[in-house]
Amino acid sequence: MSSIKELARRCGVSVATVSRVFNTPEIVSPGTRRHVLDMAAEVGYLPNESARTLATKKSNMVGLVWDTDHRRPGWRHPFLQDILVALKSALSAQGLHLLMLAPDRSAGPDSRQRFLRAVQRHSVDGVVIIDNGSRDPAVLALVDAEVPCVALDLRFTGPTCTSITSDNAGGGRLAAQHLIDRGHHRIATITGPPDTWPAAERLAGFRAALTEAGRTLADADIASGDWYLDSGYAAMKRLLPRSPTAVFAAGDEMAVGAMRAIHEAGLRIPADIAIIGFDDIEVAALVPPGLTTVAQDKTGIGTAAAEAIVAMLLGSPAPAEPTTLPTALITRGST
């Protein structure tokens, strides 16, 4: 059925009442709302989304800015995939849909406006920004235009922008304290990209806990990676000549890559080198031995992002401070 008039006739209510059920359900009595929705499901009626957007000036669409360029690995990281599932689920529960948006990476002064116009054409109500491509100047145009934005692990501030992150510094402290408690003195670390907020915070927390315990972390004991397997492998190769007895990798994928380098060197985990990761992705429990890690609340991050964007769409101001979720140590065989 495509006619709202026919649905109203079958329900025994006015066309205006049917329209309110789909556009402003909060002002319709629960009994009437349920009756109309049940009848709509029975006869296969779907509201015209384009008409609803024109009438309400809301599309019920949230844009997702996520770097999916095939030359970049961001799309496949399991940590981000888990967040995306939670985000989509939480938005769907609120009747909102996700639309993938790609930053305009073309050169030139017009790139910001081209991307902003593309966002406006899709009439998205707000935007969630995820992954490491989102500091692009084209994306920053969203902030300047005061489009409601929620950024994950990125410092975005503004009257309509807020951030969601984990307690990365606290997680770094947890990792350091765990290795200290195990009696390690020759400790090294594999960081994420140094210019990213999570990597900087994890290193700062890790270093602070070591310093407080009287341990030192020399520059030569720090190797950077890019969050992915191969970089963890290469970084561990650089650290092996330092003969560390323990390594903190700031991401689980890098930790798994480091474990491969340790095994290839004929060393045992944890007897020769203990290793601890960060994230608690699925593979952490599957590699031999199981990877000790600092767990992030991936479902919580996705849900918090959805709650933040929904709150702003309902008129609440953007929180000035980031929403920070706790981390927790998961102990397995690698330490």
Describe this structure in a few short sentences:
This protein is of the alpha/beta class and 335 residues long. The chain contains 12 helices and 12 strands. The protein has 3 domains: 4-56, 434 Repressor (Amino-terminal Domain) (Orthogonal Bundle), CATH 1.10.260.40; 61-167 and 299-327, Response regulator (Rossmann fold, 3-Layer(aba) Sandwich), CATH 3.40.50.2300; 168-296, 3-Layer(aba) Sandwich (Rossmann fold).
Which keywords apply here?
335 residues; six-stranded parallel β-sheet; six-stranded mixed β-sheet; Rossmann fold; single chain; LacI family transcriptional regulator; 3 domains; DNA-binding; 16% strand; 434 Repressor (Amino-terminal Domain); alpha/beta
Architecture overview:
This protein is α/β, with parallel strands linked by helices and 335 residues long. It folds into three domains: 53 residues, lambda repressor-like DNA-binding domains (434 Repressor (Amino-terminal Domain), Orthogonal Bundle); 136 residues, 3-Layer(aba) Sandwich (Rossmann fold); 129 residues, 3-Layer(aba) Sandwich (Rossmann fold), CATH 3.40.50. 43% of the residues lie in helices and 16% in strands. The strands form two sheets. Strands 2-1-3-4-5-11 form a six-stranded parallel β-sheet, with helices on both faces. The protein is elongated, with a radius of gyration of 24 Å. It starts with a helix and ends in a 5-residue tail after the last strand. About 1% of the residues have low confidence.
